[in-house]
Amino acid sequence: MKKILSASVLILSTIGLGACQTPEDVTQRPEAVTQIQDPQRQATKIKINKKIEVDNIFCARNYQGTVSRATKSYLPAEFNNLEEKRLTNDFRTQKRNKSWSQALAYEDPVTGSFVGVLDRNFIPGGSKVTSFWQRNHIAVNGYWLFVEKLGAFGGDPVATFIPFEADILWIPEGEDNFLIVKGCNGQFVVTKEIAKALANADSSQNAYIRFTTEKTGSVHLSQVGQKTVAAWKTVYANWKPAKKIKIEALGY
After folding, report:
1. What range does the domain containing 182 cover?
2. Radius of gyration of the chain, Cα coordinates, nearest whole angstrom
3. pLDDT tens digits along 13-56
4. In-domain check, residue 251
5. ∠ Cα 199 123 11 (to 5°)
């Protein structure tokens, strides 16, 4: 019997500057934490060692229309040896024009040049987590796919796509610590702590990240491929903070 696949799309989040709902989302506060075992209670406590506040344009609440002028970003001389990828295809063909797990020098016709590595973790034909690790910011988003049959006797399969954007990201920092990075609309600003943790990650194996999704608060564990981890050493080598980042200067 021929099966018909119908799709229902549930939109949980919308990209925009006004998407954050609480003042706490306005700033990003990466926090290095250490797990300490309490022998009497046999429960894990978390000690906050450090808190850093940075500007994240995606988390700024803005209810007024604005026009800003920004200078295109340029590629530092130390990355001139990287393979260049010109973003010449628009949204209609972008899926065919992506290179995964490779540090590249991207040339965006609108925002200029930047260095980054794309990664994806997915179930073939199913859910997918995409992460874009750029020198000055990180993007984590994707979708969950659920397929089920309706009806007592098994009707046609129905697929439900649920897109998501991450708002809190956990990044391992060595053997004993991890960083809690707060962002908005799937975007996270890179600090020297984050750059150092990623550059020093063990490039001989896959890495793990944990993230929550906006509006739902659900927590997910996801792997980052070994080749992407190795590319972090290139992307975040000799990291220095960028000038104040405006939304017009972010290329994704």
Report:
1. 6-12+29-61+73-241
2. 20
3. 333 333 333 333 333 333 333 333 444 444 445 556 667 777 66
4. no
5. 90
